[in-house]
Design a protein that fits this description.
Blueprint lengths: L1 H5 L5 E3 L5 E3 L2 E3 L5 E3 L15 H18 L25 H10 L6 H15 L5 H9 L9 H18 L3 H8 L3 H39 L5 E2 L7 E2 L4 E4 L8 H12 L3 E6 L5 E6 L6 H11 L4 E6 L3 E6 L4 H15 L22 H8 L12 E13 L3 E8 L9 E5 L9 E13 L2 E11 L1
Parallel strand pairs: 1-4, 7-8, 14-16
Antiparallel strand pairs: 2-3, 5-6, 8-9, 9-11, 10-11, 12-13, 12-15, 13-14, 15-16
Helix pairs in contact: 2-3, 3-4, 3-6, 5-8, 6-7, 6-8, 7-8, 8-9, 10-11
Amino acid sequence: MAHARALGIDVVVTDHHLPALIDDLIVLPDANVIVNPNQPGCGFGSKNLAGVGVIFYVLLALRAELRERGVFAAHPTAQAGDSRPLQPRLDTLLDLVALGTVADVVRLDANNRRLVAQGLRRIRAGQMQPGVAALFTAAARDARRASGFDFGFALGPRINAAGRLSDMTLGIECLLTDDPARATALAQLLDTINRERRDVESGMREQAEAMLERLLQTEGDSFAVKTQGRPTTRIPSALSIFDEGFHDGVVGIVASRLKDRVHRPTFVFARGQDGLLKGSGRSIAGFHLRDALDLVSKRHPEVLVRFGGHAMAAGCTLADMHFATFDAAFQQVASEWLDAATLSRTLLSDGPLGIEHFNAATVRTLDAQVWGQAFEAPLFVDEVEVVSQRLVGEKHLKLALRFAGEARGSALRDAIWFGHSEPVAAKVRLAYRLSVDEYNGRERVQMIVEAVG
């Protein structure tokens, strides 16, 4: 930016990240204008906007200013000879705003939920960019029933896959094009790249979990926790994992998977094209990841080449000679900031679900709402009897259940525990969410298991 300014180029920055701190002083780039709700002195009330939300409000403000200056024609039926353009419709962009807000995993406060809700309303009505429509088709999702889940787990990963393994401009062009045929071709290409990304991620995750198992077998003094119903084991207060075979395009996804498994702040590193280690981290509630990196950089100024991010997700770059120092320093910060209670995985539930609500209508009512980061969908807990259980796809546990107190002849409930292969007891306390499984035109309510106790 300083170089651009030296050449006489005006620079406007829109951002939502926390500004850099150097020697406890906030350092901002040399731009003409910086629009960021998280910079000092900004009075904008919504601090959790994603980058797409920031630029949307910039467009709203710009349109308002141009309107005040008389740039736009007053009305389509304005007097003849008025050559001024009509005021642009910005609500046509809300599908992109909603997609970006959910895919960036920002906190869904009241304002962000409004943005996502309005975007979903337009998509369900068939009013969306050709690229968004094509991505719904490529992901085999019904846009008429669009939900935040589709953004986070169907469309978002396909757009991001191009940047992780190929050329990020493929995803950008898919969202920008006005040509439905071109959008379809790009969405199909992104779907293919995403399948490749899944294969790479699966191999990396298995390798990382094997490294984690070895770490747990040798780890000394750490907090004791219980994760996913597994026996109590001793796990370090933070994880840093690196292997020469890791792909830097999917380190964030693998870090997220490991974080979910052991409930620890986790960094996964891969070697970049410049030879440096590129790390992507994911955190748990109560541990601000970007601030932790800042403290590591203060205590060990020679270690981090650069870093940045949010409370729950951050990235950093370092030389491999400093990896061990970073690992020890990161664990030290975590041991200082986290206590045993924070390191214990806690599921907040909405209690038992009445049998009268166990139906597709309930699922549709819940799916119509906006759920996501810091505004999770309802989680129910019930005592159940496990009538049968079997593995599907070699790694998912399929269950047939009966609610406690139901008669023996009552209909069984279907449930699946994704990514869990160990059998469960005959009677368990089950934490689950509801979904509808559609097959051959028939709807069947299914319980998505989150944990057992």
